[in-house]
Specification:
Mean pLDDT: 83
Low-confidence stretches: 1-9, 137-148
Strand order of the largest sheet: 2-1-3-4
Radius of gyration: 18 Å
Number of helices: 6
Structural class: alpha+beta
Largest sheet: 4 strands, mixed
Number of strands: 4
Shape: globular
């Protein structure tokens, strides 16, 4: 006869089995990043849903949907809500190639780099809204390239 399971024994589990990324469908950078996320190999499946859309409101009726248009928001399948820097990190964590980087970005040493990236993206996004960014034709916009 086998031994009964020990009380309090913990089996390794993934805390999140699926993530929903709410992105601004009217933001060229957000749409670009959506497409980039879709091309990656996922360790955790990602559902990409336009922020404040009918689908987002149906899935998450208690969420402040206006805030999801201002900053990236990711919701875990167990109700976890990640915003801003934490949302970017959890997106990377879901990707096979980028999980090690996500672990580092979540540390006190890496978090300032994640924050700087999110602030730079927000600044670029605001410039687009103010008409200072690159023009978009036929709904196709490119993220800014590396200067040089």
């Amino acid at each position: 006869m086998g031994h009964p399971a020990r009380a309090g024994a913990v089996r390794p589990t993934t805390p999140v089995h699926r993530l929903t990324v709410l992105y601004d469908a009217d933001c060229p950078l957000c749409v670009h990043l959506r497409h980039w996320l879709l091309r990656q190999r996922h360790l955790v499946p990602l559902d990409l849903v336009p922020a404040a859309s009918r689908e987002a409101r149906r899935r998450f009726p208690g969420l402040d949907h206006a805030s999801t248009l201002r900053e990236i928001t990711v919701i875990g399948d167990r109700g976890q809500v990640y915003r801003s820097v934490s949302a970017w990190i959890v997106c990377l964590w879901a990707l096979a190639e980028h999980r090690p980087k996500a672990h580092w970005l979540a540390t006190p040493a890496g978090r300032p780099f994640a924050r700087a990236t999110v602030l730079a993206a927000a600044k670029w996004r605001e410039a687009l809204k103010d008409g200072e960014g690159p023009p978009c034709e036929d709904g196709r916009c490119e993220a800014p390239g590396v200067p040089g």
